[in-house]
Design a protein that fits this description.
This protein is an alpha/beta fold and about 350 residues long. It contains 16 helices and twelve strands. α1 crosses α2. Bound molecules: adenosine-5'-triphosphate and magnesium ion. Adenosine-5'-triphosphate (ATP) binds next to α2 and α10. Pfam families: AAA_lid_14, HTH_8, Sigma54_activat.
């Protein structure tokens, strides 16, 4: 099993959900109530809103002994799905020299977190549903069934209603896992949490620095399409940019965040086609520049996560990766993923 497909993680000792808004309080209450029962949980919400965090809180508050196993449903190749999830017996297929437990077994008495379940191809959804309906599964190549003894948490950041109507999400699987649903609201719907969150992320980086009130005002106004992850990355970058200064000013968070939302297409076009330019730029040059700016924006908002950027841009990972390469933005991706690498 490759590292990027699934990780057996022991959650950090404390998963703290910061915020005093009614939404934040509702999420904390939900996590502690859900931890007390064994029903499936379905976490919905935009990218970066905190679904992983809520899943880990549910797991870490339970009294059961097992592990928290993260399954990235979007990354498991179809051919390996069953052996990854359910395990395989010795000699089940070429190369299966030993029998191996699957992720459901690894998560026994713990939690299996089916992340990005909305991205699972339909055939795999059917296999997963069958196991969940029966409450058991078989290792590939074995005949004896094994009982599912794990708590199931699924999450998705796709619009589930749309995925259902388009047939991308099977409605039978959806109804099977949608026992305890919770939507983690976007950050722009709980702006009162922004100062607490920003200060929390700041303290993790540098507890001597402060955030200037003007900067906090910019934070409070901004739309945060990448939600808490974007805020966290912005604070990390701002600490980095303000090296040696006691306070984070608005200049340290720009140009990534703009105080005012763009005024419409006119400004955008005027920036790319300035009046003063002697030689009128060609259509090709302008569209290239616009594409590059657009890519920089989505990458910045997702902290350099190309997969999430593809989701935000409504395209597929492969296509966006090709664009990133075409526009020579691989260095930007690296820098965004590790703000300290420069
Ligand atoms: N309320 C919060 N308090 C503290 N940290 C938070 C909070 N919400 C989110 N975070 C942090 O923000 C980052 C993004 O959150 P998380 O990974 O849970 O988002 P997500 O909803 O799972 O996103 P995606 O759909 O992209 O997987 C994480 O580092 C997480 O710990
Ligand atoms: Mg997540």
């Amino acid at each position: 099993m490759s590292q990027n497909q699934a990780l057996a993680l022991e959650p950090q000792p404390a998963h703290v959900l910061i915020g005093q808004s009614a939404h934040a309080q509702r999420l904390r209450t939900f996590a502690s109530q859900a931890a007390r029962v064994r029903h499936s949980v379905l976490l919905l919400g935009e990218t970066g809103s905190g679904k992983d965090l809520v899943a880990k809180m549910i797991h870490s508050q339970k009294t059961r002994s097992g592990q928290f196993v993260l399954v990235n449903c979007a990354a498991i190749p179809e051919a390996l799905f069953e052996s990854e999830l359910f395990g395989h017996g010795k000699g089940a297929f070429t190369g299966a020299q030993e029998s191996k437990p699957g992720l459901f077994e690894t998560a026994e008495h713990g939690t299996i977190f089916l992340n990005e379940i909305g991205e699972l191809p339909s055939a795999m959804q059917a296999k997963l549903l069958e196991a969940l309906e029966n409450g058991n599964y078989r290792r590939v190549g074995e005949v004896t069934g094994k009982t599912i003894k794990t708590r199931i948490i699924a999450a998705t950041n796709v619009n589930i209603k749309k995925a259902l109507s388009e047939g991308k999400m099977r409605s039978d699987l959806y109804h099977r896992i949608n026992v305890l649903p919770m939507t983690v609201p976007p950050l722009r719907e709980r702006r009162e949490d922004i100062p607490d969150l920003a200060n929390y992320f700041l303290r993790q980086e540098d507890d001597a620095k402060t955030i200037a009130p003007e900067t906090m005002a910019v934070f409070r106004k901004y739309e945060w399409p990448g939600n808490v992850r974007e805020l966290k990355n912005t604070v990390i970058r701002a600490v980095f940019n303000s090296n040696g200064e006691p306070s984070i000013g608005p200049e340290h968070v720009r140009p990534h965040l703009k105080e005012e939302p763009p005024q419409g297409n006119e400004n955008w076009v005027q920036r790319l086609v300035p009046n003063s330019q002697e030689k009128f730029p060609t259509f090709g040059a302008v569209t290239q520049a616009a594409e590059r700016e657009y890519l920089k924006e989505v990458l910045t908002r997702t902290g350099g996560n190309v997969k999430k950027a593809a989701q935000l841009a409504g395209t597929c990972y492969r296509k966006l990766l090709l664009e990133v390469q075409k526009h020579n933005l691989r260095d930007l991706v690296r820098e965004l993923r590790n703000p300290y690498s420069e």
